[in-house]
Every structure is written in structure tokens, then in C-alpha cells.
Write a structure and sequence with these properties.
24% of the residues lie in helices and 26% in strands. It is α/β, with parallel strands linked by helices and 171 residues long. The chain has a single domain, classed as Class I glutamine amidotransferase (GATase) domain (Rossmann fold), CATH 3.40.50.880.
Length: 171
């Protein structure tokens, strides 16, 4: 039975994430944990998050999880969701004095002037609502998910990676 560690650092939508994982992978052992050994031993790792990047990085440091995440993300299938995804980049406009994990080049930027990531579509900040997502190439994450499926978003910031090859989808 494959094991999935959901990283608990005190700032995640843990119940929602673990329930969703149980739904899509009922034969997996889903474990919400802050234990570095459990995280490193898992077959797959999910890094969720809700809140601000400054608090996220402080909580990761307090739990000695920064190097654990850097290590396991290089060796296992690893999925960052919401703030967990944002923390994978180098920096965030939300707290310019805080370094993020730096697993990917780039930064997290606030939506500008009430416009979407494309700079054109009007968007109320924080953005809350359903958007269609355009897949950027073939990726196992999209298995069974039709192109332009709609996903729910609640955010004021978006990731801008240095390398376009890091982008799995856009909205």
C-alpha cells in the first residue's frame, strides 16, 4: 500500500486535503504528519498551506522541516498546493524579507491593478471563484482530468517561475 505524507506545519487545509486524497487514492495510507522520519519515508508527499509566507517559513523552521522538504522533494513525487506551492519558489512579494525554499527559480507576485495573471482579465483581489485551467503539456497530474476543467481559487498572489518548463497549467 503506497504511503502519502501530508505535511502538517500548522498552516494547512489538512482535513480537506487528506479527504480528497482518500477519495482519489483509497488504497493508499494517507498520513497527516510533521514527523521528519515519516515524511522522508513516504512514497509520496503533499505540501498544502493556507496563510502568509512569513508564517509558513517560520513554522517550517520551528518544526525543522525546511531541509526535510528540500531533500524529499528531490527524491519522491511531491505536490505543493496553495501556500505550499508558493513556498517552493525563491521569494514572495508578500514578505520580501523572507526567503522561501528556493526549489524553483522565480517568485510569487501579487495580482496587479485588479487584473489576472495575464494582465488583462479584470479580477477582484483576493480572487475567489471558479476558473478553467489550461493544461500545459502531458503530465500525470492531469490523468483523468479533462482540458479546461474548472477549479476553485482563493488567492491574491500567483507563482511566476523563472523556467516556463515548471508550469503545468495556467488559468
Amino acid at each position: 500500500m503506497p504511503s502519502v505524507a501530508v505535511i502538517d506545519y500548522g498552516m494547512g487545509n489538512l482535513h480537506s486535503i487528506s479527504k480528497a486524497l482518500q477519495h482519489v487514492a483509497p488504497d493508499s495510507n494517507i498520513r497527516v504528519t510533521s514527523d521528519p522520519g515519516v515524511i522522508q519515508g513516504a512514497d509520496r508527499v503533499v505540501f498544502p498551506g493556507v496563510g502568509a509566507i512569513k508564517g509558513c517559513m517560520a513554522q517550517l523552521a520551528d518544526r525543522n522541516l525546511i531541509e526535510v522538504i528540500r531533500d524529499v522533494s528531490r527524491r519522491r513525487p511531491f505536490l505543493g498546493i496553495c501556500l505550499g506551492l508558493q513556498a517552493l519558489l525563491e521569494s514572495s512579494e508578500e514578505s520580501s524579507d523572507v526567503s522561501c525554499l528556493g526549489l524553483f527559480g522565480g517568485s510569487v507576485v501579487r495580482f496587479k491593478n485588479g487584473s489576472g495573471a495575464d494582465g488583462q482579465n479584470p479580477l477582484k483581489i483576493p480572487h475567489m471563484g471558479w476558473n478553467s485551467v489550461a493544461q500545459k503539456g502531458d503530465h500525470f497530474l492531469w490523468s483523468g482530468i479533462p482540458e479546461n476543467s474548472r477549479f476553485y481559487f482563493v488567492h491574491s498572489y500567483h507563482a511566476v517561475p523563472s523556467e516556463s518548463s515548471c508550469i503545468a497549467a495556467t488559468t
